[in-house]
Amino acid sequence: xxVFAHRGFSGLYPENTMLAFRKAIEAGADxxxxxxxxxxxxxxVIIHDENLVRTTGxxxxxxxxxxxQITHIxxxxxxxxxxxxxxxxxxxxLDFAAKGNFITNVEIKTGITWYxxxxxxxxxxxxxxxxxxxxxxxxxxxxxxxxxxALAPEIECGFLYEDCRHNNLALQTKEAGIQYMxxxxxxxxxxxxxxxxENGIGLNVWTINTxxxxxxxxxxxVSSTISNYPDMCLRMLGR
Length: 239
Ligand code: G3P
Ligand code: CA
Prior knowledge:
Blueprint: E1 2-6, H1 18-27, E2 31-38, E3 44-46, H2 53-56, H3 67-70, H4 90-98, E4 103-108, H5 118-128, E5 135-139, H6 142-151, E6 156-161, H7 169-175, E7 180-183, H8 190-199, E8 202-206, H9 211-220, E9 224-227, H10 230-236
Parallel strand pairs: 1-2, 1-9, 2-4, 4-5, 5-6, 6-7, 7-8, 8-9
Antiparallel strand pairs: 2-3
Bound molecules: SN-glycerol-3-phosphate and calcium ion (CA).
């Protein structure tokens, strides 16, 4: 099982910052999960919310500020401003990833704001850094997932979900040419795990912050755990 650090090592460091990404890799994580949005000038930035206020204290929408403005704002509000770590650009992150050997789950945040070319822009940058084989795209917006797959068939993709009534999503995922399902842990059960195994669909499950949840994933032998505490997951895997 692979261990992904959710928004980086966000249990201990400010989420979606270069510090949290570096700490995750130093802890031994196999990969990093992060979230992308677009700035006013159409550049890709790494942040979870549409508004900066929760992580920075600045009450502004990402797509109302320029890349230059955004990347000068400290993003450690969730850690009582104890760190000096600005919002990273996607380009800065890819430069870091290109120097390592880990996987990145890029979540395209088009659930609320629609950024028309975000998939195309992300793919062009990923290709420029030759990272196609170390990226997994995911999104709650499955139109974004299908667009990414159509534009870059060589890059793996997953359907992200926290509410689902499909009888056999694994079969539909396979038929859509998508490699993974990314369910909220609460939606996983023996039947979904079996359907994924029968259809060759990988399961990357979030958010795994307790030993009880991690033990269930170990028992189910899923593809990946996505956790704010990659150290805890690695320890339980004996790594
Ligand atoms: O990709 C898994 C997880 O990150 C999805 O939820 O809200 O943390 O982006 P959220
Ligand atoms: Ca995410």
